[in-house]
Design brief:
alpha+beta; SH3 type barrels; 2 domains; six-stranded antiparallel β-sheet; 4 helices; 6 strands; about 20% strand
Length: about 180
């Protein structure tokens, strides 16, 4: 028998079709692998940025990894950024007011404005607030003009976390 009689012939068109299908399948696998690796960062994009359990009609308490707690309306910009608007926090407890007072963010020395932009990695916990919560009652009284809130005592909400100036002020040492 000759080689021509035992050879299998594949048309060039069929070979191209098989190679294109294999290439398309490989491309789909690569895209799926990248999406799987980036699932945490992309989770907010596919889910709308804010978990479905967050009540968009209510205020939220947002607990940060540094110990700060802010109250406001939570939204999202992409998968790794939260935005908090109409922001309040509790001032540091004092002798006359051991529970602290509610402070409207924006009165601090550095003059922040809404919204507060929070990296998602800094958020420890999010809670929806009930309308009958004490914080919500204070916010409602403030918004109606009934009761002014406490002025900000420092540029950072020190009542919830942050460095306290307990160490002595460093002084320059004499040089020779």
């Amino acid at each position: 028998m000759s080689d021509e009689q035992t050879a299998i012939t594949i048309s060039l068109r069929s070979l191209r079709r098989v190679l294109l299908r294999a290439l398309a399948a490989a491309l789909v696998l690569v895209v799926l692998a990248v999406l799987w690796q980036q699932r945490d960062a992309l989770g907010g994009v596919f889910a709308g940025g804010v978990p479905a359990e967050v009540d968009r009609n209510a205020y939220q308490a947002v607990f940060l990894t540094g110990g700060q707690v802010y109250f406001g309306k939570l939204g999202a910009r992409g998968g790794d950024i939260y935005v908090l608007s109409d922001v309040y926090y509790l001032s540091e407890p004092r002798e006359g007011n051991p529970r602290g007072q509610l402070v409207k963010r924006g009165t601090e020395l550095h003059g922040p404005r809404d919204p507060m932009i929070i990296p998602a990695g800094q958020v420890l916990l999010i809670e929806n607030l009930r309308d009958d919560a004490e914080v919500m009652q204070a916010i409602k009284r403030h918004r109606s003009g009934e009761v002014p809130l406490a002025p900000a005592a420092s540029p950072l909400p020190t009542g919830t976390a942050g460095p306290s100036p307990t160490a002595a002020t460093p002084r320059p040492t004499p040089t020779r």
